[in-house]
Amino acid sequence: MGTNLTPGSRQAGTPENASKAARLRALLEGPELGFLMEAHDGLSSKIAEEAGFEALWASGLSMSAALGVRDSNEASWTQVLEVLEFMADATSIPILMDGDTGYGNFNNVRRLVAKLCQRGIAGACIEDKLFPKTNSFIGDGQPLADMDEFCGKIKAGKDSQTDPDFVLVARVEALISGWGLDEALRRAHAYRDAGADAVLIHSKQSSANEIISFMQEWDDSCPVVIVPTTYYGTPTGQFRAVGVGAVIWANHSIRASISAMRAAAKRIHDEESVIGLEDGIATVKDIFKLVGNDELKDAEDRYLPTDGDAPRGIVLAATRGSALGPLTEDRPKCMVEVQGQPLLRRLTRSLHQSGIRDVAVVRGYAKEAVDLPNLTYIDNDAYEATGEAASLACALGRLSGDTVIAYGDILFRRYILDALLETHGDIVLAVDALWRKRTDRSESSGRDLVQCSRAFLPSFIEDDPVLLEAVVADETAANEQTGEWIGIARLTAKGAELVKAELEAMSADGSLETADLATLFARLAESGNAPHVHYVAGHWLDVNDAFDLARARDFL
Ligand code: SPV
Ligand code: MG
């Protein structure tokens, strides 16, 4: 909606970028019977456009009713103008405004028309009755305006339009007031001669006879618009056959909504519950869709500051952690609680505290159990047969810009991440130099031992970058340059591109499925894009088994 025009459905000969007024004009003047659907606010306008209507009737009756007042000019013209503005903003189709009697004399019509043009309203319909108006279906014999005075209003309106295609429709109430066909035709001709772009001939009979008679006498010198509210039983084909220009379905949106709202309110009141209703009404998501929340999300991405360009987080949490036994029967280990909170909650809080608010979690095992709020979830449904590199590949779409990658089963002191975020290098791994102090590692722990270009010795000075050289196969192959990657990596935009390219290469050569992330980083080192190493000295842990869990409690 909004700017989503459907050119195919437009009246032939109207260019796609024509103004709304030009499109309303084409709809009235075109060879096909046109239809205008009543709308009374932004939402009903959107719904009418969604249904396929090419123009809207901003009904005075309906707009008044929606405001809870009578169709007797109780809402001021500027209040109506405000409603119209919402309607016009909400849609891309033209609006014909029900201008009642013009809110006063010729001078009021001048101002009304000028304002409508300013607000992008395509046309107005004014009727030859007296201010304050009375709805045509109330009583009999409503007084008509003096014909010449009304012609002056039409002239004044036409002289005031700033859009050359603005449509002024003159509504003839002679049949409503019981003056008969001749008076109706006399007035219709006079109004056309005064400059009206179309005439609306209104009737409150239950048959279309007087409308058909009018059409048979009409000389076709301008389009005729009708409102078959009371003679709704007449097949639409008959209106086509007699050359009607457009039909207004004048109040059906508000009437439909009254019935629906009344039934819903009564049921909720009587049942003291919404259970019975829920399946039959629009969803909240439907509301979001109608009002275009997706567009707002896109705009936020474009215009809102991105936390000072804070990195985005990717947490890999697809594995079960079977060494934790029954604790991970119904949840993966990232959701195992440590002192009353899931590990993942603690981890994401650490990320948040370091300014990383936009965090995606790659889930796999028991993914339904990973349901913490305010996180984006990505699923690795092949988690049983794949490793961490494959999980990261599931988040390929998120690998752009500054990024922090973390395993979902780690805890660390905040300064580690803060310091890592300060480092240089396109890919930087936090590596524990004191890895040998981590004793009692079980078989299941799968440590990421890595060999670095320089060791972290007592004399270590951070000058030249330390680079990752290789993955160390097992502890017996370790030397003094060995450290343990703690499961956190920081990437710049370029680093993210390098990682992405390597993941793609691994996918191509078949090694992606089972690889862990240390292997991915070692491959980058081999291909001349060695990740930098940022040494830390303890102050972190990962959780693989019950011992780790006990350590985690102490850690906190
Ligand atoms: C309206 O919809 O407000 C109209 C049409 O003016 S009718 O109610 O039929 O008069
Ligand atoms: Mg009206």
Structure write-up:
This protein is of the alpha/beta class and 556 residues long. The protein folds into 2 domains: 21-250, TIM Barrel (Alpha-Beta Barrel), CATH 3.20.20; 284-555, Spore Coat Polysaccharide Biosynthesis Protein SpsA, Chain A, CATH 3.90.550. Helix content is 37%, strand content 17%. It is built from 19 helices and 21 strands. It has helices at 20-29, 42-51, 60-66, 77-90, 106-118, 147-160, 180-194, 209-217, 236-241, 252-271, 275-278, 284-290, 293-303, 343-353, 388-394, 414-422, 493-509, 517-526, 546-555, and strands spanning 34-39, 56-58, 95-98, 123-127, 167-172, 198-201, 224-226, 246-249, 312-317, 337-338, 341-342, 359-363, 376-379, 403-407, 410-412, 427-432, 449-452, 466-471, 482-491, 532-536, 540-542. An 8-stranded parallel β-barrel has the order 1-2-3-4-5-6-7-8, surrounded by 9 helices. Strands 16-19-17-18-20 form a 5-stranded mixed β-barrel. A two-stranded antiparallel ribbon has the order 10-11. Helix 8 (209-217) links the parallel strand 6 (198-201) and strand 7. Helix 2 (42-51) crosses helix 4 (77-90), helix 5 (106-118) runs parallel beside helix 6 and helix 6 runs parallel beside helix 7 (180-194). The longest helix has 20 residues, at 252-271. The chain is elongated and about 110 Å long. It starts with 19 loop residues before the first helix and ends with a helix. Residues 1-10 have low confidence and may be disordered. Sulfopyruvate (SPV) is lined by residues 59-62, 71, 98, 135-136, 227, 229, 250-251.
List keywords for this structure.
17% strand; TIM Barrel; elongated; five-stranded mixed beta barrel; 19 helices; Spore Coat Polysaccharide Biosynthesis Protein SpsA, Chain A; binds magnesium ion; 21 strands; disordered N terminus; 2 domains; alpha/beta; binds sulfopyruvate; 556 residues; eight-stranded parallel barrel
